[in-house]
Design brief:
This protein is an alpha/beta fold. The protein has one domain (4-284): 3-Layer(aba) Sandwich (Rossmann fold), CATH 3.40.50.1820. It is built from seven helices and ten strands. It has helices at residues 47-55, 80-94, 109-120, 150-155, 165-172, 190-203, 223-239, and strands at residues 4-11, 14-21, 31-35, 59-63, 101-106, 124-130, 176-182, 205-211, 256-260, 265-269. Strands 1-2-4-3-5-6-7-8-10-9 form a ten-stranded mixed sheet, with helices on both faces. Strand 7, helix 6 and strand 8 (205-211) form a beta-alpha-beta unit.
Length: 286
């Protein structure tokens, strides 16, 4: 089992709690930064994916925004701006400046991942967006509050996301990009997902994965769904290739899942012999 270690990062009066694993990041070893969503989101839900990243020879880290998990602070005092500032503080404190970044955002952190791309520019070699949200510029500096304040009013306006600056950032992005879409998402409107897809299609080397059987909180599904989906996504983030035609090993009597690149679908497949071990991603050193 891949060993993961804890860390804390002080920023703006808060103590942010995180976990890391894998080799030290550097020019040939990317740092894969996993960003959880809002509400009940924590780093704990990202640990299986983080372990997979580290096992593939990449440096991986995940942390909790203030007010989440073991980090100090109040969620109602967070804002989209503060989320970006906290992500930048953790990256600058934990990742060498010469290491390429792979940024993966879930739900609200789809916006944060786009903000990180805008902040670091070409240093971001790949971006993963999992059931991502994007928000109107007006919401940028507004505290989240308790669900009945100005932030909630802004994000609930029909079509208010259409002019989201994050979409402009994603249109201009030319690195590797993966969009993971759950089969059922009652949180993110299909129009938002379509806009993100179109933005990523403009310039990036783009792959879409539709995750069968998953709901909005992709990291909170069954252990099998998390494991098999992660095995499919992770190579795309780190090498631009997915496990074409390979089926991960499944427990006896249970179906495995296959990642189909042409359609970008993770779908049930008949049990078969375990596949050969996938090569270590090219960016992750020797």
């Amino acid at each position: 089992m891949t060993e993961l270690s804890s860390f804390t990062c002080a920023h703006d009066g808060e103590r942010l709690s995180g976990v890391y694993g894998g080799p030290v990041a550097g020019p040939g070893v990317p740092a894969v930064v996993l960003l959880h969503g809002a509400g009940p989101g924590t780093k704990e839900r990202l640990l299986p994916l983080l372990a997979d990243v580290a096992a593939r020879g990449c440096h991986g880290l995940a942390f909790e925004f203030s007010g989440h998990g073991e980090s100090t602070g109040e969620q109602k005092e967070l804002s989209l701006r503060r989320r970006l500032e906290q992500a930048v503080a953790v990256i600058d404190a934990r990742v060498p400046a010469d290491a390429p970044l792979v940024v993966v955002g879930f739900s609200m952190s789809g916006q944060t991942a786009a903000d990180v791309v805008a902040h670091y520019g070409e240093r971001v070699a790949a971006v993963g967006l999992c059931a991502p949200a994007v928000y109107a510029a007006e919401a940028w500096d507004v505290p989240f509050g308790s669900g009945d304040g100005r932030f909630s009013e802004i994000i609930r306006r029909p079509g208010g996301w259409r002019g989201a600056p994050a979409l402009d950032v994603l249109r201009a992005y030319a690195g590797r990009a993966v969009l993971a879409v759950p089969e059922t998402d009652t949180v993110i409107p299909a129009e938002v997902t379509g806009a993100v897809r179109d933005a990523l299609s403009a310039r990036s080397r783009f792959t879409r994965f539709d995750v069968r059987g998953a709901e909005h909180m992709l990291g909170c599904g069954s252990r099998r769904t998390r494991r098999t989906a992660g095995r499919s996504w992770t190579p795309s983030w780190t090498t631009g290739r997915s496990r074409r035609g390979r089926t991960p090993e499944a427990p006896p009597g249970r179906p495995a899942y296959r990642s189909t690149v042409r359609r970008g679908v993770i779908r049930p497949a008949p049990p078969r012999s375990p596949p050969p071990r996938s090569p270590r991603p090219a960016w992750c050193g020797r």
